[in-house]
Design brief:
By secondary structure, the protein is of the alpha/beta class. It has 2 domains: 2-213, Rossmann fold; 224-305, Pseudouridine synthase. The protein has 11 helices and 14 strands. A hairpin with a 2-residue loop joins strand 9 and strand 10 (208-213).
């Protein structure tokens, strides 16, 4: 449905987006992640036809966005990061203004506004000034304008930015509902939201795509290094523990008298837990905890995007 091929964008001679390639199919909810300055917003603005790529092409339904920008904009709904709204308007005035911009008329216009209001849950603030709305309701109004013309693709840049935890849950549930019959590309710094909402994750760093897949796929690919948590009584000398095949390092995390909790960094395919158990029997350690920690999307994100120290 949407494809980017060798898309590049430069600012002052620096590549903000560097030969980016990916495709998004109909019905996918894609989390587009990256640290600040990685190229997320620039890429999303190019997809939304607000910026032209310097190189490469962006296609939607086999149409190039450079040549068919009006057609593309009819297919897209865009909510930018700063969610620009007119504070001096009522919510109703603003949505009618957006309907004018989208050239919606007559019964189609009334139906579009009504359905957007219902879908985003803003009926109770429909006749209130936007300046008086909470941050959560303002985000909902931003979503309402993005979906009013029933776009095939929604592009949401930091839709939960600045919200408190309860507001985040509300917007998260709203986006999950919107994703049932639309393709959604969203960026966020809250990785738990990606796990909860997205069927696929694309990670960009320094303008390049560094990972693309489901959350489970990315975690499996990062399993080359794993963490094992060990709680043992009587373990004071970790040298024999560190000598077990696959154990790269042993870090003592907590110590209470003879009881200690340790974090073991493990590489390779060998699972050292059986050998740890045998060694504990030989040394007389009493184990109360021994398990492999599940990597999270945050672990994968940090591994792929933390810049190497100079």
């Amino acid at each position: 449905m949407l494809s980017l091929k060798n898309v590049t964008k430069e600012y002052s001679g620096k590549r903000a987006v560097d030969s980016v390639n990916f495709e998004v199919q109909k019905g996918e909810v894609v989390g587009f992640l990256g640290p600040n300055g990685a190229g997320k917003t620039t890429t999303m603005r190019m997809i939304a036809t607000l910026l032209d790529p310097d190189e490469g092409e962006i296609m939607l339904d086999d149409k190039n966005i450079r040549e068919h920008s009006f057609f593309i904009r009819q297919k897209l709904g865009f909510m930018p990061e700063n969610n620009p709204l007119y504070d001096d308007m009522l919510t109703s005035e603003y949505l009618n203004y957006v309907a004018d911009l989208k050239e919606l008329k007559g019964n189609e216009r009334l139906r579009a506004i009504d359905e957007a209001v219902k879908e985003t849950g803003i009926a109770e603030v429909f006749y209130k000034p936007i300046s008086e709305l909470s941050k959560g309701y303002k985000q909902r109004v931003g979503l309402a304008q993005a979906i009013m013309h029933k776009p095939d693709i929604l592009i949401l840049d930091e839709p939960t930015e600045g919200l408190d935890p309860n507001q985040r849950v509300g917007i998260r549930n709203l986006i999950k509902g919107l994703g049932k019959d639309r393709t959604i590309i969203l960026s966020t710094h809250v990785l738990q939201e990606v796990t909860a909402m997205c069927s696929r994750v694309i990670i960009i760093n320094q303008g390049k795509i560094v990972a693309d897949g489901t959350t489970d796929e990315l975690i499996r690919k990062a399993q080359g290094k794993r963490l094992i948590r060990l709680g043992a009584q009587g373990l004071t000398d970790t040298s024999r523990l560190a000598a077990i095949e696959g154990i790269e390092s042993v870090t003592e995390k907590e110590r209470r008298d003879a009881k200690g909790t340790f974090e073991l960094s493990v590489v390779g395919e060998v699972d050292p837990r059986l050998y740890i158990f045998d060694l504990a029997n030989q040394e007389g350690w009493k184990i109360w905890e021994l398990h492999q920690e599940q990597l999270s999307l945050e672990d994968v994100f940090r591994e792929l995007t933390v810049e190497e120290k100079q």
